[in-house]
Design goal:
There is one protein chain. This protein is mainly alpha-helical. It contains seven helices and no strands. It is globular and about 45 Å long. The mean pLDDT is about 90.
């Protein structure tokens, strides 16, 4: 497993736990530290985990609006916690990440892999459909600019 994929996995697990316990006021930074100790003791690039989780948390309202618009038949609270957070990670990288560091197709493919690894049997297709829709819209907007 590449260090970037491991970092995304830890970010996803952190966001899952934070989302699940958010009403109880759990601090996501504490969750990151716990998950890093458990899953990546020897990893050297933990800044990538922090950048993803910080970015998702800081932009969560906007990311959730995009999910709702791209998947109108799926109310946000009806999307599984895993799929919802895979979408947040994928969208964060697709929209906010440095495109030279994380090209759009890498962001989408990594999100699909996370969905297959952690989600249900149809999670990969669902994530692909939503992120593909958003990617096409971004491409169209950039083409019309």
């Amino acid at each position: 497993m590449s260090s970037r994929h491991l970092a995304r996995s830890i970010a996803l697990q952190t966001l899952y736990e934070w989302d699940f316990f958010r009403d109880e006021g759990k601090n996501y930074k504490d969750i990151i530290e716990k998950n890093v100790k458990e899953f990546a003791k020897n990893s050297s690039d933990l800044s990538f985990v922090h950048s993803i989780v910080d970015g998702v948390v800081e932009n969560i309202s906007e990311l959730d609006k995009i999910i709702v618009a791209a998947a109108p038949e799926w109310p946000l609270d009806k999307i599984t916690i895993i799929d919802r957070n895979v979408l947040r990670v994928g969208l964060y990288e697709l929209i906010y990440a440095d495109k030279k560091e994380v090209p759009p197709k890498v962001a989408i493919n990594e999100a699909i892999e996370l969905a297959k690894e952690f989600g249900g049997s149809s999670s990969g297709k669902f994530i692909n459909g939503v992120l593909g829709t958003v990617y096409k819209e971004i491409e169209e907007e950039q083409g019309n600019s």
